C-alpha cells in the first residue's frame, strides 16, 4: 500500500522506489548536518563582520585547493570509497574542531572561529557538490526529470530539521556539542551512499552501475574541460549569473530590512517568516510539481523560469513605493528562493547526467564549488562598487534586471542543447 501511494505522488517505475528514497535520505542527512552548524557560522560572521570580505576571499582560495584534492581521490578510488570518504573526512574535521575548542586556551578562540567560518563555507558547497556528483552518476537523465524534484525534498526537510534541532539544543547544550552532533548525519550520509552504490551494482537495469575502470585522470583534469566544452562553459556562466542575482537580491534585502525595521528582534521575526514561507512553497513544489514541469515544459523553460522570476523581482523592488517595500521583498524572496531550490536545482543537475564520468565528478565539483564561490565573491564586490558610485538599493535592483534577462536566454539555450544531446 505504501509503495502504491508513493508511486501515485512520485513518478517512479519498478525498482526505482528504494534508490529514490535512499537518495532522498542522503540529501536529508547532509543538509541536516549543515543547518545544525549554520547558526554557529552566522554567529561568528556577526561577531567578526569587519573581516567578512576577507574571509569570503579566503574561502574562494581554499575552494580552489579543495577541488583538485577531491579530484585526486576521484581518480584513484571507486565511488563506493571516495563518496563515503568525503563525508567522513568532514566528520573527522568536526571532531578536530571540537578538540581544539575544548583543549586550546580561550585566547585562540578568535582564530579557531575564523578557520571554522572558512571551513563551513567550503563544507556547505562541497558536500552538496559531492552528493549531486554521485546522484547524477547513478541516475540517468530521463530518471532525473522524474525523480530529482522529489530527491531535493530530502534536502529541504533536512534544512528544516537541522535548524529546528539547533534552536532546541542551543538552549540546553554547549555550542561546542553541535559540532559532535553533526558528525552523526555525516556518518549516515556515508552509509546511505554505500547502500545506493550496492543497489546500482545489483540492479544495472534500473540504475547506472559503476564501470570497472576508475574515473582516472589527474587532480587538475576536471578543470580544463570547463573552459573547452561549450556545455560546461555555459553551465558555469549560468551559475555565475545566478550567484550575481542571488547576491544582489540578498544585499538589497539587507538594505531594505535594515532601513524599515529598527528593532533587531523584529528583523529576525520578519526574516524567519521569509524562510518559513520559502521552505513550505519549496517542499510543495518539489513533491508535486517539479517532475511535471520538467516533463511538460522541458529543461530550457525550467532553467529560464528562475531568471524570469529574478527579472520580475528586480523590477518590482526597484519601482515599489516605500510603503510596500517589505511586502514586495517578501513575495520576491519566496518566489525566487523556492524556484531556485525546487526547479532550477533539479533541472541543472539533469544536465550533468549527460556528461562523461570525469566531468560529472571533477568538472562538476569545480563548477559547484569554486565557480559558485567565485561568483559570490565577484558579485559582492560589484555591489560594493555600485554603492560606492552612490546608487540606491532600488537603482541597483533595476540595474540587475537586464543581466537577469541575459541569464534567462542562456537558460533556454542550455536546456535546448541538453535536450538535443539527450536524444543522441
Write the layout of secondary structure elements.
Layout (H helix, E strand, L loop, with lengths): L1 H8 L7 H31 L4 H25 L2 H25 L5 H30 L2 H29 L7 H5 L1 H20 L21 H5 L1 H31 L3 H25 L1 H30 L5 H28 L4 H32 L4 H31 L1
Structure description:
With 424 residues, the protein is mostly helical. The protein folds into two domains: 17-215, Growth Hormone, Chain: A, CATH 1.20.1250.20; 222-424, MFS general substrate transporter like domains (Growth Hormone, Chain: A), CATH 1.20.1250.20. The protein is built from 15 helices and no strands. Helix 6 crosses helix 13 (325-352) and helix 12 (290-319) packs antiparallel against helix 15. The chain is globular. It starts with a helix and ends with a helix.
Helix content: over 70%
**In this structure, how is the largest beta sheet organized?**
none
Tell me the overall shape: globular
* CATH homologous superfamily annotation of the largest domain: MFS general substrate transporter like domains
Radius of gyration: 21 Å
Overall strand count: 0
Low-confidence stretches at least 5 residues in length (pLDDT < 50)?
Answer: none
Which CATH architecture of the largest domain? Up-down Bundle
Count of helices?
15
The CATH class of the largest domain turns out to be: Mainly Alpha
- SS-derived structural category: mainly alpha
Mean pLDDT: 87
The end-to-end distance, rounded to whole angstroms, is 38 Å
Order of helices and strands: HHHHHHHHHHHHHHH
The overall number of domains is 2
Task: Classify the beta-strand content into a percent band.
Answer: under 5%
CATH topology of the largest domain: Growth Hormone, Chain: A
Amino acid at each position: 500500500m505504501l509503495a502504491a501511494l508513493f508511486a501515485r505522488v512520485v513518478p517512479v517505475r519498478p525498482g526505482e522506489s528504494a534508490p529514490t528514497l535512499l537518495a532522498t535520505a542522503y540529501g536529508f542527512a547532509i543538509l541536516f548536518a549543515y543547518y545544525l552548524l549554520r547558526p554557529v557560522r552566522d554567529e561568528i560572521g556577526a561577531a567578526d563582520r569587519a573581516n567578512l570580505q576577507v574571509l569570503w576571499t579566503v574561502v574562494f582560495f581554499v575552494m580552489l585547493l579543495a577541488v583538485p584534492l577531491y579530484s585526486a581521490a576521484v581518480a584513484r578510488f571507486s565511488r563506493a570509497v571516495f563518496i563515503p570518504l568525503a563525508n567522513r573526512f568532514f566528520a573527522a574535521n568536526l571532531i578536530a574542531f571540537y578538540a581544539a575548542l575544548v583543549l586550546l586556551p580561550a585566547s585562540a578562540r578568535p582564530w579557531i572561529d575564523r578557520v571554522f567560518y572558512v571551513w563551513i563555507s567550503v563544507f556547505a558547497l562541497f558536500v552538496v557538490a559531492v552528493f549531486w556528483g554521485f546522484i547524477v552518476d547513478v541516475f540517468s537523465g530521463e530518471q532525473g526529470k522524474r525523480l530529482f524534484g522529489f530527491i531535493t525534498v530530502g534536502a529541504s526537510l533536512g534544512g528544516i530539521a537541522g535548524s529546528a534541532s539547533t534552536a532546541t539544543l542551543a538552549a540546553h547544550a554547549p555550542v561546542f556539542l553541535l559540532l559532535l552532533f553533526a558528525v552523526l548525519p555525516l556518518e549516515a550520509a556515508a552509509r546511505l551512499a554505500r547502500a545506493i552504490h550496492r543497489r546500482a551494482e545489483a540492479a544495472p537495469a534500473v540504475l547506472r552501475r559503476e564501470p570497472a575502470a576508475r574515473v582516472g585522470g589527474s587532480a587538475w583534469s576536471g578543470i580544463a574541460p570547463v573552459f573547452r566544452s561549450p556545455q560546461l562553459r555555459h553551465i558555469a556562466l549560468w551559475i555565475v549569473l545566478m550567484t550575481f542575482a542571488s547576491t544582489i537580491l540578498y544585499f538589497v534585502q539587507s538594505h531594505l530590512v535594515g532601513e524599515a525595521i529598527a528593532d533587531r528582534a523584529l528583523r529576525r521575526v520578519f526574516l524567519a517568516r521569509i524562510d518559513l514561507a520559502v521552505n513550505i512553497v519549496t517542499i510543495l513544489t518539489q513533491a508535486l510539481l517539479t517532475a511535471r514541469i520538467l516533463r511538460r515544459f522541458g529543461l530550457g523553460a525550467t532553467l529560464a523560469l528562475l531568471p524570469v522570476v529574478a527579472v520580475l523581482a528586480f523590477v518590482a523592488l526597484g519601482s515599489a513605493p516605500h510603503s510596500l517595500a517589505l511586502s514586495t521583498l517578501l513575495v520576491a524572496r519566496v518566489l525566487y528562493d523556492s524556484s531556485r531550490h525546487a526547479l532550477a536545482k533539479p533541472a541543472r543537475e539533469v544536465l550533468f547526467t549527460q556528461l562523461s564520468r570525469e566531468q560529472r565528478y571533477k568538472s562538476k565539483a569545480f563548477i559547484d564549488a569554486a565557480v559558485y564561490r567565485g561568483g559570490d565573491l565577484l558579485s559582492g564586490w560589484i555591489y560594493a562598487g555600485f554603492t560606492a558610485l552612490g546608487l540606491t538599493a532600488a537603482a541597483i535592483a533595476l540595474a540587475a534586471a537586464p543581466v537577469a534577462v541575459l541569464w534567462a536566454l542562456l537558460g533556454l539555450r542550455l536546456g535546448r542543447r541538453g535536450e538535443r544531446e539527450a536524444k543522441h
